[in-house]
Amino acid sequence: MKKLNTSENRPARVVAIHDLSGFGRCSLSVILPILSVMGAQVCPVPTAALSSHTGGLGDVAMLDLTDFILPCLNHYKSLNIDFECIYSGFLSSQKQIDCCLEFYSSYPDALAVVDPVMGDHGKPYRTCTPEIRSRMKELVGVADVITPNLTEAAILLGEEYSRRPLTREQAKSMLLRLSEKGPAQVVVTGCELASGEMANIGYDRDHGSFWYVSCDYVPVSYPGTGDIFASTLTGGLLCGDSLPIAMNRAAKFVEIAVKTTFSCGSDTRYGVMLESALPYLLQRDILNSFNIL
Ligand code: PXL
Q1: What is the pTM of this model?
Q2: Considering only CA atoms, which of 260, 217, 251, 259 is closest in space to residue 232?
Q3: What residue's CA is closest to ligand 1, atom 7?
Q4: How far is the CA of 224 from the centre of ligand 1 (A)?
Q5: Number of Cβ within a 10 Å radius of residue 62
Q6: 95 DSSP 8-state letter
Q7: What is the best residue among 26, 121, 147, 189 to mutate for testing ligand 1's pocket, by most ligand atoms within 8 Å of CB?
Q8: Sign of CA dihedral 140, 143, 144, 148
Q9: Cβ-based neighbours of 284, under 8 Å, separated by 6 or more
Q10: Atom of ligand 1 nearest to the CA of 127
């Protein structure tokens, strides 16, 4: 794990390279408030502006901003400013992947977080072409931390997606094989374990440790929960959380937001009610609901 230089008297700075989707609570719309509440300074580099996410809300208005990414990088370089973290997510073209690679290589000391957003429930997103799926592996190759869901883990490993519950050995093997692709810290979300628990599982290569945090099953799924998990995890790591504590914080926060929303019976396409859940992140409470895998 990289040593983060937060000795300067200022918040950690995070370059967040994601799309800005106006309605539906995903990507920058959730990443910005989460990291800000957790005390980081977010510098958003929007890859596209959309009227909403692309998950079932009809004709989405979209403005591609790929050509905006590298001018942002060049400006930051000219300012000679440092960043503690570069964090990318949903990407819609190979060129955007090239731009992200350029950002990561320009700040080699920054924590490189790659959320390889490509699909869910065993299927790639409509915009995630075979070329993007293949090139996402290059981003994973330069990452320190990755946060795929089970679908994305299968794509990265070139395996068939399976919903079969994972034994501990299978879970550890998956984490190890993902880590061999580059990242020292791997978290796979939304796994069902052979014990019957739903869990997020993690591996910290520097400590040689495997972890899981189990979460309550809720019979619906909402867009943006992957972004909420990954940004909370990133915020935790930047605040000095160990990997299992950051996983615990992120899982707890997603659980609060999902259960609040489910209790209100809201339209799932509108995302989770992040606004009422955000104050939870102001607490720096001690968490210990993680387990050794
Ligand atoms: O949360 C992932 C995501 C991000 N951005 C856009 C999306 C999605 C998932 O559907 O459509 C535009």
Answers
A1: 0.97
A2: 251
A3: 53
A4: 7
A5: 16
A6: H
A7: 26
A8: negative
A9: 239
A10: 11
Tokens representing residue 239 in the block: 């605040």
Helices (H), the chain: 28-37, 66-79, 94-106, 130-141, 150-157, 168-179, 225-238, 243-264, 274-277
Lookup result for tokens 């799924």: 221
* Burial class (CB within 10 angstroms; exposed 0-12, middle 13-18, buried 19+) of 161: middle
Q: Which atom of ligand 1 is nearest to the CA of 19?
A: 5
Nearest by Cα to 12 from 44, 42, 34:
42
Q: What is the pLDDT along the chain (293 residues), one digit of tens a residue?
A: 777 766 678 999 999 999 999 999 999 999 999 999 999 999 999 999 999 999 999 999 999 999 999 999 999 999 999 999 999 999 999 999 999 999 999 999 999 999 999 999 999 998 999 999 999 999 999 999 999 999 999 999 999 999 999 999 999 999 999 999 999 999 999 999 999 999 999 999 999 999 999 999 999 999 999 999 999 999 999 999 999 999 999 999 999 999 999 999 999 999 999 999 999 999 988 899 999 99
DSSP 32-56: HHHHHHTT-EEEEEEEEEEEE-SSS
Q: Which residue in 216, 215, 245 sits closest to 232, CA to CA?
A: 245
Looking at the DSSP assignment, which residues form a beta bridge with residue 124?
119
- The number of C-alpha atoms within 13 Å of 123 and in the hemisphere containing its C-beta is 5
Question: What is the DSSP track for 277-290?
Answer: HGGGGG--------
